């Protein structure tokens, strides 16, 4: 089968992760050029190589270019009934199993998990992936965002997934270990256009054990709540403070807003020299901006949901048409998914009427 040609020269790692997931889901080979072409250091980094190798192992794919720094890769899923190079791929399903991957740096565990999550829709048997790396690091969702925002929202639409945490991993050493467990799932059509009434606020504040004597987790939560006191109806329904073993000192804050149609999440990470209270305030400020709008999902969830929208069809109102949203829509269209984008002031409604024909 002729590979689908894709150009990532104006995109980052999310283009690679989404392309690999779509390749498996559609049971089609792809050839990616210009991998992470718009980054200061283009090509495969440690975490991107880990995603590629993990997806290749799960899908029994033939791969070329799986080397650090490579900007061109080829990926051909080896699913039952396909046969590498076959011109007529047969409809098939994806076997589960148990896999382990060590990113080798503080590369993002959560981004790797996000790449694997859509595969739940085509599994024949349970799949577990144990990942070692950075659980709470810059430029990616903190672990508690995955656990308490992403997975609960996807469960509403039929994804059966759970996340088990063995150890947290902060920058620069990483060393966190998480196991993502997926069961065969039937995804329902997604309808997230209107935000329901506000139902509550949940706080998840984490500190490494090395910061416990400074009460960092508690101070982060206090900072967030003090900033949010001016918002009526935002009394916390849950406050969870965690002290976690980790090779590196670090902290993370996640605020979750519950409303009638779903959940939204807002995050901040601790930094050297940054007061813990300020970390909580940053997450609170993002929450306030969300509440001033009308979209039912936050900016990060907006582009994460688009792959699932392509699989099940439906509509999602996004708070803004970010570069990630635009790039992901273009990638879905490259796989033959007709994507509608209707702008409405600052927000936009992304829709899919004819979902992706999965696995051939």
From TrEMBL:
Origin superkingdom: Archaea
EC number(s) on file: 6.5.1.4
Residue segments, region Disordered: 222-251
Alphabetical UniProt keywords: ATP-binding, Cytoplasm, Ligase, Nucleotide-binding
Catalytic activity, reaction form: a 3'-end 3'-phospho-ribonucleotide-RNA + ATP = a 3'-end 2',3'-cyclophospho-ribonucleotide-RNA + AMP + diphosphate
An annotated GO cellular component: cytoplasm
Group of enzyme by EC: ligase
Regions of compositional bias (Basic and acidic residues) in chain numbering: 224-241
A Pfam family the protein falls into: RTC_insert
Domain RNA 3'-terminal phosphate cyclase insert, chain residue ranges per copy: 194-290
Subcellular location: Cytoplasm
GO BP, sorted A to Z: RNA processing
One GO MF term: RNA-3'-phosphate cyclase activity
Chain residues that bind ATP: 300-304
Family matches, as NCBIfam families: PRK04204.1-2, RNA_3prim_cycl
Family designation: Belongs to the RNA 3'-terminal cyclase family. Type 1 subfamily.
Name of the protein described by the UniProt record: RNA 3'-terminal phosphate cyclase
Organism per entry: Natrinema longum
């Amino acid at each position: 089968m002729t590979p689908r040609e894709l150009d990532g020269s104006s995109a980052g790692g999310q283009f690679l992760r989404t392309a690999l997931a779509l390749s498996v889901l559609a049971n089609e080979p792809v050839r990616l050029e210009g991998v992470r072409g718009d980054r200061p250091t283009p090509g495969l980094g440690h975490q991107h190589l880990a995603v590629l190798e993990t997806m290749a192992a799960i899908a029994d794919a033939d791969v070329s270019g799986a080397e650090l720094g490579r900007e061109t890769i080829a990926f051909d899923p080896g699913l039952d009934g396909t046969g590498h190079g076959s011109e007529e791929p047969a409809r098939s399903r994806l076997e589960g199993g148990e896999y382990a991957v060590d990113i080798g740096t503080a590369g993002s565990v959560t981004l790797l998990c996000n790449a694997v999550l859509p595969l739940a829709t085509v599994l024949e048997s349970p799949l577990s992936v144990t990942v070692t790396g950075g659980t709470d690091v810059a430029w990616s969702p903190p672990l508690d965002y995955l656990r308490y925002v992403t997975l609960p929202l996807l469960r509403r639409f039929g994804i059966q997934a759970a996340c088990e945490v063995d150890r947290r991993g902060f920058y620069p050493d990483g060393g966190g270990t998480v196991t993502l467990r997926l069961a065969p799932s039937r995804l329902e059509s997604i309808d997230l256009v209107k935000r329901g009434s506000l139902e509550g606020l949940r706080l998840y504040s984490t500190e490494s054990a090395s910061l416990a004597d400074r009460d960092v987790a508690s101070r982060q939560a206090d900072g967030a709540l003090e900033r949010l006191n001016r918002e009526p109806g935002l009394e916390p329904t849950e406050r969870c403070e965690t002290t976690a073993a980790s090779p590196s000192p670090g902290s993370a804050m996640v605020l979750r807003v519950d409303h009638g149609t779903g959940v939204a999440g807002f995050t901040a990470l601790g930094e050297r020299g940054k007061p813990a209270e300020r970390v909580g305030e940053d997450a609170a400020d993002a929450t306030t901006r969300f509440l001033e709008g009308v979209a039912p999902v936050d900016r990060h969830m907006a582009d994460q949901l688009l792959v699932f929208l392509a699989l099940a069809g439906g509509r999602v109102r996004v708070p803004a048409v970010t570069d990630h949203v635009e790039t992901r829509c273009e990638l879905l269209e490259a796989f033959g998914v007709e994507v509608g984008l209707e702008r409405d002031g600052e927000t936009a409604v992304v829709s899919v009427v004819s979902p992706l024909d999965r696995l051939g």
